[in-house]
């Protein structure tokens, strides 16, 4: 699968589709917690001011107000940065939205260390663990522009709360307008036979670049973009690891309580294979260039390449 430079970030693509959808569904509303020019929710606000509510720097109140509107039967989109949605407003998300299973969708920008230059305060490296913990919550992570647009539609058509993790900056595109996405779905974006590499979001591109390097050394990896984190695609995973007998999960998130923990638990119960995972290892990251940050904290192409070769060596023993 060929990488092409992205012109816009997934946060902008998601909001552009939200604007388009505003003409289709004239009933849904958008709540913003002060940073609409960063989440790009202002696009919807400028077009539909009567359906756009900027609540200021008050994430818990934003969540509670969104719950009230959703309880009245509307679909509601809540927009902010991932750290603020999942931490400042966690209790409201849990009790007011997930417990009554309300139709609230979350535009969560700045996922993982994609906001590298913004520093730890804006890097959401715990958000997957937090949101997947909540009953009734569904979690999606688009990797590129087309995926972000399509997953807006998946989110609004899925009953109950849906958390969509988005990136700060444009990276690459791999999908076309013909690609489709669904809840509980994944995509095998590269076929291989030696190791299954499962990832999502920005690290999809690191995995693809690592695959090109590994191919030169006669190592073949199968890459799964597990864009639906909760629920995840058990069928694609089982089919792939039954073939490769080895699994590497790589994510821009803490290793603890991330997708790696979820899939390792699944494999222990259903299909034990050689396993490892890469992520932030019980540490915060730091402010800096995105590519230098992911390399320092063990989730770049180089680390995927080295860990894959370790797993291949274990298979041959």
Feature tags:
2 domains, five-stranded mixed β-sheet, seven-stranded mixed β-sheet, Rossmann fold, 317 residues, alpha/beta, 14 strands, 13 helices
Description:
The protein has 317 residues and is of the alpha/beta class. It folds into two domains: 9-173, 3-Layer(aba) Sandwich (Rossmann fold), CATH 3.40.50.970; 187-316, Rossmann fold (3-Layer(aba) Sandwich), CATH 3.40.50. It has 13 helices and 14 strands. The chain has helices at residues 10-24, 36-39, 42-47, 59-71, 82-88, 90-98, 127-133, 145-157, 203-215, 234-244, 259-270, 290-296, 301-316; strands spanning 4-5, 29-32, 52-54, 76-81, 104-109, 138-140, 162-165, 172-173, 187-190, 195-199, 221-225, 228-230, 246-254, 274-280. The strands form three sheets. It has a seven-stranded mixed sheet, sandwiched between helices. It has a five-stranded mixed sheet with strand order 9-11-10-13-14, sandwiched between helices. Helix 4 (59-71) runs parallel beside helix 6 and helix 9 (203-215) packs across helix 13 (301-316).
Mean pLDDT: 97
Q: Helical region count?
A: 13
What are the segments in which pLDDT stays under 50 over at least 5 consecutive residues? Answer: none
Major β-sheet profile: 7 strands, mixed
CATH superfamily placement of the largest domain: Thiamin diphosphate (ThDP)-binding fold, Pyr/PP domains
Class per helix and strand makeup: alpha/beta
Principal-axis shape equals globular
Do you know the CATH topology of the largest domain?
A: Rossmann fold
Question: How is the largest sheet built, in terms of strand order?
Answer: 3-2-4-5-7-6-12
Radius of gyration: 19 Å
**Considering DSSP H and I runs of 4 or more, what fraction of the residues is helical?**
40-55%
Question: What is the name of the CATH architecture of the largest domain?
Answer: 3-Layer(aba) Sandwich
The CATH first-level class of the largest domain comes to Alpha Beta
Specify the oligomeric state.
single chain
Order of SSEs: EHEHHEHEHHEHEHEEEEHEEHEHEHH
Distance between the termini: 32 Å
Strand content: 15-25%
